[in-house]
Amino acid sequence: MLPGVVGLIQATEIIKLILENGVPLIGRLLLYDAMKMNFKEVRVRKDPQCALCGDHPSVKELIDYQAFCDIHLPGQVPQDDIDESLYELTPLEFKKAFDADSSAVMVDVRETFEWDICRIEGSELLPLSKFDPATSGLDPDTTIFLYCYMGKRSMLALKELKRAGFKKLKNLSGGIDLWAEEVDTDMPRY
Amino acid sequence: MKLTNEEINRYSRHLTLPEVGIAGQLKLKKSKVLMIGAGGLGSPLGMYLGAVGVGKLGLVDFDVVDHTNLHRQIAHASSDEGRPKVESLRDTILAGNPNIEVEIHNIRLERDNVLELFRQYDIIADGSDNFETRYLINDAAYFTKKPLVSASIFRFQGQITIFAPESGGPCYRCLYSEPPPAALVPS
User: Fold this and answer.
1) Most CB contacts within 10 A, which of A134, A135, B78, B147?
2) Residue A164 is part of which domain span?
3) Does A117 share its domain with A177?
């Protein structure tokens, strides 16, 4: 329902601009909180230092927005020499390899609310938001099978384990979403 | 430009408002609004802008209707699953008001198509769902001197404002000079 409320405020402002009537939301940022059910208004001003509309703009034409938005946290390692393809398994390969290795451990790095929706039988939950190889209780000598929703977060966890000295690591390519399509078709998808 | 008798009848509750009247209704009929996004925000936005008689609506989206969209993207019906969102939204808008023109753009907004598109409209409405597109739209609206009515939602919160540097207000970059680090972007 949230997008309905917000979309209609947007519509109202558009109509006011067209009719040139009323006080438009220019220079004001309206914040709506559905849980608290309140509206807050924050004054927003033109920044003289703005790269686009400031006094000395540096953006004078359209730029490469993908590159502009693809920045990383300070301290985060943006590139590494880990070849991801070495660890990726299709859902069927993942299942087969896990079933064949009785000492293997399967780790779900999604968040708790996702775990509550669906999970792969035999896995344990170690959310990426709190993931730390040192306190994970995982044994570097066992094979660790990792999965998440689409396969990206589990690859981040895999790389952390790799850096921590783990060697036997597998990642579910396509995550539990592809698993639900190719292995367990009774699983709910979200 | 005039209103037809059918339009006068349809919009009669507007026409009796002094703030709108025939002059206001004609302003609506002459106006062209480009909407980016035909999803959660675009659904109610397009349905209402169409119903009140905005003369021309442009819809930009490259996505198709998915089962998980239906609970909030109210312009799309269960039978629309798999259809391009712009087609589904267009049909819903025109079913409500066949007097207006709806132009669909089943494309991803890019650096090389955005300016030409923006120039054909008076107002830009941003209901996009990612930072790349938001910066692209902000810059293109600035270069083409179009007011940008911006809305975004995250979880249980929404934000709305109008970016109109031409009228003395800030642009999106004045508020957010840099995108959040990739690791913090919710997916």
Assistant:
1) B147
2) 84-182
3) yes
CB B137 within 8 A of CB B152: no
Per-residue pLDDT, A79: 60
Phi, psi of A34 (to 5 degrees): -70, -35
What's the token pair of residue B158? 């929404």
**How many domains does chain A contain in total?**
2
Tell me the percentage of chain A whose pLDDT exceeds 70.
Answer: 95
Q: What is the CATH number of domain B32-184?
A: 3.40.50.720
Contacts of A60 (CB under 8 A, 6+ apart): none
Q: Please, which residues bridge with residue A33 across strands?
A: A38, B157
Q: Answer whether A39's CB lies under 8 Å from B149's CB.
A: no
Those residues with Cβ within 8 angstroms of residue A104's Cβ, 6 or more apart along the chain or in another chain: A97, A98, A142, A143, A144, A145
- Please check whether residues A41 and A116 belong to one and the same domain: no
Does residue A37 belong to the interface with chain B, where contact is any CB pair within 8 Å? no
Task: Return the closest-CA partner of residue A116 out of A35, A160, A176.
Answer: A176
**Burial of B51 per CB tally in 10 Å (0-12, 13-18, 19+):** middle
Look-up of token digits 């207006």: B100
Q: What is the ipTM of this complex?
A: 0.96
Give the three-state DSSP class for A108.
Answer: strand
Closest CB to A62 among B136, B151, B152 = B136
- Here the CATH number for the domain that contains residue A167 is 3.40.250.10
Find the residue in A nearest to B141 (Cα). A62
For residue B151, the cross-strand partners are B160
Predicted confidence band at A82 (pLDDT cuts at 50, 70, 90)? confident
Q: Would you kindly state where each structural domain of chain B is located, as residue ranges?
A: 1-30, 32-184
